Each structure stands twice: as C-alpha cells, then as structure tokens.
C-alpha cells in the first residue's frame, strides 16, 4: 500500500540533506582562531604557483571588488553536521579568476590560502565548478567579519571547511598536498553526499601520493 497523501506530500516538501546532516535555520559562527582585522590598504589577493605564464597575478581590494560580480544559490554543509540550504552567495566566480590568471596545462589542484597561513586544497575540477565562488555577500548583504569578510570561498558541493574564510590567494599546483584541516585528520576530498569526513575513510586516489 502507498503512503497516505498527506505524509507523502510532507516528505516530498522536506529538503534533501546529505547523510548525517541536520537542517540549520540560522548561520552559526564556526572557525578556528581569532577573527583577523581587515586593513584594505594592505589587502592583496594573489594567484601564483603553476600559472600558464609563470607569473604571479595580484589584485588590490579595490581592483578585486571591481571584478565581474556573480551570484550562485548553494548549500553550506558543515562537517559538524549542520546544513544551511538555498543561500544566495554573491562575489567573484572562481571561473573568472581561472580566465584572468589561467593555470598551466599540468595544474591538477589548487591550494586556497587565507589569513594566518590557513589553507585548504581542492581538485582543479572542484575549484573550476560553475558554482564555486569567492563570496563577498550572502543574501545581498556584505558578509560580516565573523563569517569571512572581506572574502570567503564557497564550494557548495563539498563540506564547508573546503571553503576558507578570509581568503587571500590561490596557488595552482601540479600535484596534490593536504591543507590545514586535511593534515589534521579531515578527508582530503570532503564530499558530504559520500560523507567523506575523516582521512581514515579515504580510498586509493582520494589523497596525495606518499
């Protein structure tokens, strides 16, 4: 027998969450370490490493803010098991940076660098997703400092730790290496739909070659 119509309708209306996640109505503040002080006159965004032309590319805060503005609607799945669904993020698409500062043909990964030397590694395909964005806004409002102002990376299809707050640059890499949390036991890929939370869950090919 089928489900009662009311129950089936209610279940259909419930959002789909990755395994182990719960729906979060608000936006908790989660990060490691202090909130950095923003000094616009000193702020610089860099793309370096295995670039196509072998050069480092830099933008001041004013120059970065003048780059084409994009919006994406994407979820945020925290490894602490809360999920915030359907948020609108505004900022600079990762693909825009890939066009302005192309990687070398043999670049396979990126390391995203943030304040205090914090880092997160991503496969190039994840970074190049049309939904990956360097966010300056959420819901049309500037991010607060606690949530990553002036710039945070949002990668909706991966766990949120893969999108650092207070981003300052991107390093193109020709081989993978682990970032801050990945060196401390978190999964190297971080796909919430496969519940890739911890490094002990990694399968061959998920992490850097030893």
Commentary on this structure:
This protein has four helices and eleven strands; from the N terminus they run αβββαββαββαββββ. With 210 residues, the chain is an alpha+beta fold. The strands form two sheets. Strands 1, 4, 5, 8, 9 and 10 form a six-stranded mixed sheet that branches. A hairpin with a 7-residue loop joins strand 2 (44-49) and strand 3. It starts with a helix and ends in a 37-residue tail after the last strand.
Give the CA-CA distance, first to last residue. Answer: 54 Å
Structural class per helix/strand content? alpha+beta
Give the overall shape, derived from the CA principal axes: globular
Question: What kind of assembly state do the chains in view correspond to?
Answer: single chain
């Amino acid at each position: 027998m089928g489900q009662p119509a009311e129950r089936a309708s209610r279940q259909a209306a419930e959002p789909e969450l990755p395994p182990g996640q719960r729906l979060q109505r608000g936006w908790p503040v989660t990060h490691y370490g202090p909130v950095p002080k923003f000094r616009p006159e000193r702020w610089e965004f860099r793309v370096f490493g295995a670039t196509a032309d072998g050069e480092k590319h830099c933008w001041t805060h004013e120059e970065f803010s003048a780059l084409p503005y994009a919006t994406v609607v994407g979820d945020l799945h925290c490894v602490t098991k809360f999920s915030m669904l359907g948020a609108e993020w505004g900022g600079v698409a990762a693909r825009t940076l890939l066009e302005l500062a192309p990687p070398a043909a043999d670049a396979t990964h990126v390391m995203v660098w943030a304040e205090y030397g914090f880092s997160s590694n991503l496969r190039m395909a994840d970074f190049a997703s049309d939904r990956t964005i360097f966010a300056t806004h959420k819901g049309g409002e500037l991010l607060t400092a606690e949530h990553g102002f002036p710039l945070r990376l949002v990668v909706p299809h991966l766990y949120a730790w893969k999108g650092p707050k207070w981003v300052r640059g991107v390093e193109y890499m020709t081989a993978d290496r682990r970032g801050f949390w990945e060196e401390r036991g978190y999964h190297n890929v971080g796909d919430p739909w496969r519940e890739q939370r911890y490094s002990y869950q990694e399968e061959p090919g998920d992490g850097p070659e030893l």
